[in-house]
Amino acid sequence: FQAFPPPQTRWMIHSSAKCIGELLVPVAPFDQKSGREAWTVAFAPNGSYFAWSQGHRIVRLIPWTKCLKNFSTGHCGEATNASSPRHLSCQNSNGNHIIPVAGEPREHTIDCGDIVWGLAFGSSVPEKQSRCVNIEWHRFRFGQDQLLLATGLNNGRIKIWDVYTGKLLLNLMDHTDVVRDLTFAPDGSLMLVSASRDKTLRVWDLKDDGNMVKVLRGHQNWVYCSAFSPDSSILCSVGAGKAVFLWNMDKYTLIRKLEGHHHDVVSCEFSPDGALLATASYDTRVILWDHHKATVLLELGHLFPPPSPIFAGGANDRWVRSVSFCPDGRHIASITDDRLIRFWSIEEKAPQAIASLTNGLCCAFSAEGNVLAAGTRDGSVHFWECPHSIASLQHMCRMALRRVMSTQQVEALAIPTPLRDYLTYKVI
Hints:
Largest sheet: 5 strands, mixed
Protein name: WD repeat and SOCS box-containing protein 1
Strand content: 35-45%
Pfam family, one: WD40
WD repeats: 142-171, 172-214, 216-257, 258-290, 320-354, 364-385
Oligomer: single chain
Low-confidence stretches: 1-12, 73-102
Keywords: Repeat, Ubl conjugation pathway, WD repeat
Number of strands: 29
Mean pLDDT: 85
Distance between the termini: 13 Å
Radius of gyration: 21 Å
Shape: globular
Domain SOCS box: 392-428
């Protein structure tokens, strides 16, 4: 199902998404254009902080509540102008900090020493122990309220920062090329996976002082992105190739490859219940998979009519750069080279809202799912209010069930076929 409608049915798209604010980067008169890109934006799992790589080695860490207070309440409009003075930033024009009130989360500007490609927040849960035997000899003892930020750099290094203090804790060195993406296991174990242009993924145990646990090999070219399933048992990785890799993170072995894209796959993310996997590709499509059974459930097309497989691998202005799953499990956002952000409803199988964005590179939903952040090539970040809708009780029950049951387990239940199809997302 190619889900972006032809021109005669564009009226089905409900509305334009409302822009609620933007974070701008001061530009010097002779500022070089390369190196300014905001390759990654990220929200802390607890919703306390927002981080983005604003170019030129700099990462900004801003309390999310402070961001919301500083945003303009009006529309930014379809054609967002990054130089407009009426859109407030969380920094002064010269980049100085605003002095926080005592007890409030502090804002930090971090110089990482090289171009930053990947960002990831990690939180610590002491009950989830390290796999290392000699845990008592560790240099770091992370508390329950620990919040870390990992940054992947152009020189292959990974730097780990304390979010609350802005101090450097660890410097991980083993990759031989750009660290393109980082992701923490969501179970609080502080297991970190890095994806690199050196064609490998590396697993690091930060509770074991950042020691490297495993190297995952299998990609024949650059690795662009990786994502953990919500229960941390499966890792998805994608890169400069048509295949989607699924890894068993208990045994560190390859489970299977998903075949269906016709060009490089550049972004991936699991649904909040772990039942669906969304992958974005330069072939102009976002595919929704049932990764348990390696089947395609839905294709979200960004070019109409869809390109044939022989042409889908060519250059076009519909390359999908990033995909993100909303925490409500019902909406997906995608960024493409046609200067649009699309908000998809998996229930309606069509864009529910669109917004203009020039040179978009990445996107991420806030922890609450009500705001989408998108980074651009000029280092700025734009924020949109997500489409509002109330989830049905059926969907909420489906998500609760799928968090603990795989597709095969659901299919084994003695329940009517229509209900089984709904629970396995065959009927979305």
